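Running this now, will post back.
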Amino acid sequence: MKSSKKIKSNFHEKKYQICKRCVMDTSDKFIQFDSNGICNHCRDYLNKRLNVTAYKNQDKNALEDLFKRVRMLRSPNSKYDAAIGISGGTDSSMVAYLASKAGLKVLAIHMDNCWDSPIAAKNIKNLIALPGIDYYCKPLIWNKFKKIQRAFLESGLPDIDLPTDTAIISTVYRVASLFKIKVLLSGGNISNEGILPASWMYNPKDSLFVNSVLKKGGLNPKIMSDIKYGLKLDIKYRFFDNIKTFYPLNKFKYDKYNARKILEKEINWESPIRKHAESIYTEFNQFIYMPIKHNADYRRAHLSQDIILERITRKEALNILKNSAYSQIDTDYIISFVAQKLGYSVEELKTLINNPPLWYVDFPNREKLLNNIYNVFRLLTNRKLSSTWWG
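Update: finished.
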């Protein structure tokens, strides 16, 4: 493993500031504050994102109407009404449960990147036993995927889970297309994922960016050919195969805590405790790697959403953040586990964690071009479906 050179990031360091309404701060390198000390995340979340959900437009029949529409869109060449990508986490599990309860015929698709926790495996087993749900598992080739993960880990970027995100998107669309399925039901939702700072998590569909990271790691970009998902494939699946994505959890006042109680009662589901902790590697990324290396704490984004939705007070959130993201995690065990699985010594992995941080702007990318293209996509989607990007 080559040692990382100290590279000055393209981001200019800002004087520390925290939002006066939520708890987002300058750990997000793109954050902006108005004259009242309110951040752009608060403004955008309240003024834009929440407007497309049941939090602003309550309709008691919205979810039922959505599932009716899904049935109408079913292809005569398919045995399924919809496909759902499942991880064993709260959101995708809740969508699968609701779809089963509504009587839909569903193909549950799991992309297995070899990092599932025992809790995730148990939850998936219980989910696929529900009426109307069939199961398709796509395991990745570990020796190949391990090299990809090492390249991203050694890159210095915060989002070392990007290869997994890409593989999930690619797998779900490919399998849906294989089975002639015209509808994807996603667990993505504004309630839990309305604030996701771009500096922490960059677009996995930017092929130039992904290729540049792989090349820096000494890999041929073709190594991702079977899991890559770029603009060309996006156009193919969305417009030529006409696969539509809907977001059921935005159709009612979704509460992740209540969802967990329902799943626990109905299907003996078990909570992973922390969001995204159904994946051991994601837990490492968000609760150890990013907080130490980039001073980026995902809890800030989640707690900020809870503050805006009045599920928690700002004072309570600040008290939670007094303790580090990894304060209740056995960091020695997880670091040792990740190091052994990826082929590092513990000291090598700790060195990588403590090397200077880099950000996506430090790599070649097509951010401006893709933003313009997807803005056009949104206009076309809105006009054609009389809907929003979030379904």
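The chain has one domain: 40-385. More later if anyone needs it.
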